[in-house]
Automatic annotation (TrEMBL):
InterPro entries: Spore_II_P. This is Stage II sporulation protein P. Keywords: Membrane, Transmembrane, Transmembrane helix. Pfam families: SpoIIP.
Length: 375
């Protein structure tokens, strides 16, 4: 079985973030004299590559009278949502689901998909966290990990706050899912698209709407950080997140929403699924990075790990079988930016889009429950 390897990038922020102090100072001055819109544009110009700068410009336009809708149209540039959505019935996933291809549309040379369900691990590498588990791929003793996750969340989410508490974004926004209902995929399907109605932005939208409906003020950035070039996508997304944190210091949690890719040597794509309330959902997996003292610099990894354990426990407790074990490993993924920064894999390229949309809602439901109880 082969699994897509994500590039964690350098452990240090690198030259693209060495200007963070200058950017923050400039943004503060801009906020004082020019207002938030122009301040965000300045942040993009100082710290961001092209996708981030486009986002900054469009958000700056959205701050101006008559510009609120400019960032949400078209596929040529990034789009973002900077206000809570209207109240949403968390059970109404049907309003998000899309028509899928049927077996009548299946070509003769279609690829094969196999469903599976990954269970919680056991053995010395696996640490229990409520109903879920953490797979410890580091040299940190498991007893130390188990002790750390008993501590409370390192941040407090203010319910029904006028200020944003959560940011959802996508380093690899163009990752997408099968458009077919059956267990097959179209020949030549690279599982990438710039269509925000079909890629990770669609899943992020469900998650953001669900959190906002629960009274957790959530922003959703739809920048295509991996387009037109996959190389440098983590640098692009880092700059985007820094812009949001500069404009909205109230943000406690940053969720980088991806999908995984798992396939067999013969090219069969694996679709991890679970049935929840009579409907198939893609299984999900959290990834939490760890500082290794040299190439991966994550001074707040313990705080992020607490968050990962709490969310994992909430998801698996509410929806048994929904999660794969948390991957705790020497990954960077820009998780130094807040003490609530995590990467979540919503299914794989073997899942269909509706399974992923439903999984996004379930994951957000569990997060809302966690934050509501903690609040």
């Amino acid at each position: 079985m082969q699994q897509e390897r994500r590039q964690p990038g350098p452990g240090q922020p690198g030259p693209g973030t060495g200007r963070a102090a200058l950017t923050a100072a400039a943004v503060m001055l801009a906020l004082t004299f020019w207002g938030r819109g122009l301040a965000l544009v300045l942040a993009g110009a100082l710290a961001g590559p092209l996708p981030a700068l486009r986002t900054a410009l469009e958000q700056g336009q959205a701050e101006q009278p008559g510009g609120a809708d400019s960032a949400a149209s078209g596929d040529s540039g990034p789009a973002s949502s900077t206000a809570p959505a209207p109240a949403l019935d968390p059970a109404a996933i049907e309003s998000y689901l899309v028509p899928l291809l049927t077996d009548a549309d299946k070509p003769q040379d279609a690829g094969t998909v196999a469903e599976t369900s990954y269970g919680q691990g056991s053995g010395e590498k696996y640490i229990a966290c409520a109903a879920g588990t953490i797979k410890n791929n580091t040299s940190v003793p498991s007893a130390e990990v188990a002790a750390e996750i008993q501590n409370p969340l390192p941040f407090h989410i203010e319910l029904n706050s006028p200020e944003p508490q959560v940011l959802i974004m996508h380093t690899h926004a163009t990752e997408c899912y099968r458009p077919a209902e059956g267990l097959w995929f179209l020949p030549g399907d690279g599982a990438r698209t710039t269509d925000r109605a079909a890629n990770m932005c669609a899943v992020g939208a469900v998650m953001a709407d669900t959190l906002n409906a629960a009274g957790i003020h959530t922003l959703h950035d739809q920048s295509l950080n991996d387009y037109p070039s996959y190389t440098g996508s983590y640098g692009n997304s880092r700059a985007v997140v820094q812009q949001y944190l500069a404009q909205y210091p109230s943000i406690k949690v940053v969720l980088d929403v991806h999908r995984d890719a798992i396939e067999k040597e013969d090219g069969t794509r694996m679709a991890p699924v679970v049935e929840v309330n009579g409907r198939k959902a893609a299984q999900v997996m959290l990834i939490c990075g760890c500082d290794n003292g040299s190439t991966v610099s994550l001074p707040n990894w313990r705080q992020n790990l607490r968050f990962a354990a709490a969310w994992e426990g909430a998801m698996e407790g509410m929806y048994p079988g929904f999660t794969r074990p948390v991957l705790f490993s020497y990954r960077f993924y820009n998780q130094d930016l807040t003490t609530g920064s995590l990467l979540i894999e919503i299914g794989t390229h073997g899942n269909n889009l509706n399974e992923a949309l439903y999984a996004g809602q379930l994951a957000a439901n569990a997060l809302a429950s966690l934050f509501t109880q903690a609040g």
